[in-house]
Amino acid sequence: MNNFDYQKAATVSDVVGKSTFVAGGTNLIDLLKYNLTNAATLIDINTIGEHHDILEIEDGVRLGALATNADTAYHPIIEQRYPLLSRAILAGASAQIRNMATNGGNLLQRTRCYYFYDPHAPCNKRLPGSGCSAINGYNRNMAILGTSENCIAVFPSDMSIALSALDAIINIKSEDGERSVDFADFHRLPGDTPPIDNNLKPGEFITSIDLPLKGFAKNYSYLKLRDRASYAFALVSVATGLELDGDTIRDVRITLGGVSHKPWRVKDAEHYLIGKKADRENFSAAADIILQGAVGFAHNTFKIKLAKKAIVRNCMMALDPSTQLPGAQPSA
Amino acid sequence: MTQIGQPISRLEGKLKVTGAAKYSGEYKVPNLLYGYVVSSAITKGKIIKIHTESAEKIKGVVKIFTHLNRPGKAWFDMQYADMDAPPGASFRPLHNDEIKFNGQPIALVVAETFEAAREGASMIKVDYQETKFQTDLHSNLAAARDAKKGMATLLKPPPPKPTGDFEKAYAESDFKASGEFIHSTEHHNPMELFTTTTLYDGKGKLTIYDKTQGTINCQLYVGNVFGLHFKNVRVVSPFVGGAFGSGLRPQYQLFLSVMAALDLKRHVRVTLDRSQMFSFGHRPQTIQHTRFGATQEGKITALNHTSVAETSQFEDYTENVTNWSSMMYPADNTLFEQKLVSLDVNSPMDMRAPGGSTGLHAIEATMDEISYKLNIDPLELRLINYSTFNNAEKKPYSSKELKACYLQGAEKFGWYKRSPQPRSMSRGQKLVGYGMATGIWDAMQLPARAEAIITKDGKLHVKSAVTDIGVGTLTVMTQIAADEFGLNMEDVLFFYGDSKLPFAPIQGGSFTTATVGTAIVFASKALKKKLLKIAKTSNEAFKKAEIEEVTFKNGMMIYKDCSISFLEIINTNKDKPIRTTNFGYPHALKLRKYARAVHSASFVEVEVDQELGTIKVTRALTAVAAGRIINPKTARSQVLGGMVWSISKALMEETIMDAQLGKYINQSFAEYHIPVHADINELDVLFVQEDDKIINELGIKGVGEVGLVAMPPAIANAIYHATGKRINRFPIHFDELMES
């Protein structure tokens, strides 16, 4: 970590056009300590006077980018209208980290690939052209979908898996004005440009995240499978929202986490389910569609089968959300 | 009321939870310099050039030490060898341009602030000449060989010699079970980072606050390596934030801190960061094989257990993996073997229950396998093969209440509710399994000294250089000393964690309570004689008293109807304290006829999700026979810690070696998984009565390691019972249990 100047921002206009902001710092401080990020000036955006709140808006709810993950998860509006989001947030990190981490920062966190954090290991995400150590290395935690020959890193957020399923919209400000991006278009696959995680341009600033009205509060579930019960990134996670008419599926959202460089959502699978009976057989067929094209590596091929089973299980859990357990563990 | 046997809370507990306890990196020292280590980015080869120019320009950087400018130091390898050094040549930091393992310290940046030192370290670029390395045990098995012998072999004898004819007996046995068991590397990862704060006191004198399990071990090491008089080197370590074996040997931050302090004539603190704590000793990766044969009735007749472990290229670290089965089960035909493979890694070192927690998995999972083949209850199989005779040493045990562990443990756990067939128990969507296993650990005792003093105000002070690595040593030693004199805890002060105090060996192997406790008993006995002798000079009533006839209680010495207070005796002694320092030692002649061990039995219930394979250890019980329990509370905590670690070992913990890069890749607490609270459910500990009149004065055996030997295989066995799948690779990943 280098010595850097530290400034506090008062308004959004203080920060647009600039770079290296710190909000919760729950990932940035790691990156600084590992010498992966080297900012001459660090701008603290916690001191900005707005974008800290959870607000009801005309066609949904607006999450301030500077609201903490914990405040968001425990907010009555989120707990009541978007419990899927609440569940997903609470499945991530630890209580201490969630108290610090912000919603904007959550979307921008970097991968937890071992090799990315090791400054001496080849990594195309850290040092383009140096190679990918994970493809032929230890890849239990790595991606099975949307990978490229350059990078098989996974985007580690839990919150974003739910935001993807909820069709959230990201509001962005820059010197040129404001724009909104559909959640599905925000994160990127690694392709030939693994260093670029998302479509936020230099100088742009996330101000808030909008949740549309439909919150799937009646039938939802978040399931997270990992090697310990808490404080571990997902090997596979699933967010499911269901809208039912009797036992017929009227609307459905399924997003997979832990398997790709971005939240993995396949609309074909959702279309397949609409109008069908909410049962294991149909969920299983949808899971096959979602996992189409999945390719495993030496230590993570299990994720393909695990993801399919997790989708089915989580959809079944969504039929009765009371079966969900703390830590997004599989139902009893 | 006697203090021994009372569940007394740690005397230093409040200091620890309020932050008042100072660890080696927490002493406020004026004009302190900070050192940050630069670690090798390659695994094997040579340093061609170290570019220090830009680091030197960082404001506050004082000096950068490398192999080129390091001060001269000891010439001979022997002088680098510490009390716990395995055979070979101990690692010498900054010795030359040669790189022997990834993460090897190659430079120390010393600066006026920690931040400047760290920034400087990050700016150092190194040119290397890399050579081909080997870090993978599995692809180097052809190089397996016997270990060199040395001093360390005394405490870790090679496996027992073959008996009978194993191959024949195995071939002819009615029932056979065999397995290959693979264990990954593990690192100790104590919460406290390894830190040394060296105070340069002038005139070549040093006071060193070090994170260690042996103050005198570090004192001798520093004296030897830097050519200092031992009396000028004082190593202080009253609080240790966990160590688990990693503090048994001086780590390189001690060397670097002392080197810089002597060279710069300043106080210097060197702290390793978390990833650097993956660059020294570790539990070695191992591959084991077992083949056990049994009769129709379940009698084990043939035992074969082999192990191959990694070591470094410069030391032959050995842990006893295959010694245990013939200590437990009296088979006539045995064949044991332990081999090493030298790899380009740092030397492994002892880590909680070294060898035992590795070997017992293989032994107890193989026993479990046999029980299913024979259709005998796993507990019944152990009882069929029960013996109070140690077949490896051909001696009876000084005591062995393992049967009580089995029976009381099974009863309390509810073992008898188990249905025998695998996959026969379930709860909702979870398969339920019960597993059990046996544990064993050596009950060792080494010589140590202790000083006992009656102070001017009539209080008892007891002193030993021993550390308290968080296990309750301070509390337990105070209890032992208090009972010797019939005192309350408040009237006794135990001084420890300081090399200027009487000699104690490194704190490990579960031998500290027996070792230092016995020294305190010896010193107390000598002090009592002294007190009586002085009392006789002033008090007529005590003239004819023999020491055996005298009792001590509440600060009084009592003989028949007469009593004299410690204060009166001190008064007789011209108001001077009365003191004595004595050696306590094991009674070698008496003990020669006996084998000594502590035993345990663990019972585990797991739930495994039928569909997804996720594993939960829902409850576990460990029953322990460890002689006399001085403090049931701290002893229970020791066993609980071992049980939590058992869950870690069986299901989570591994340092992942990337053999292409030649380095460990999960060097952080985020990625090196140990259990979190959510992984820990119901844990129960039970101590059975075990009176050992042979082993030592107090009948102590020690409980540090025994919590981590039986439970890992019990978890594996419970998973087999739940799922019908026998996974012999640790840690067991849940995806291996996923429904096919």
From TrEMBL, chain A:
InterPro entries: CO_DH_flav_C, CO_DH_flav_C_dom_sf, Diverse_Substr_Oxidored, FAD-bd_PCMH, FAD-bd_PCMH-like_sf, FAD-bd_PCMH_sub1, FAD-bd_PCMH_sub2, Mopterin_DH_FAD-bd
UniProt entry tagged with the keyword Transport: no
Protein name: Xanthine dehydrogenase family protein subunit M
Pfam families: CO_deh_flav_C (PF03450), FAD_binding_5 (PF00941)
Domain FAD-binding PCMH-type span(s) in chain numbering: 1-216
Keyword line: FAD, Flavoprotein
GO molecular function: FAD binding; oxidoreductase activity
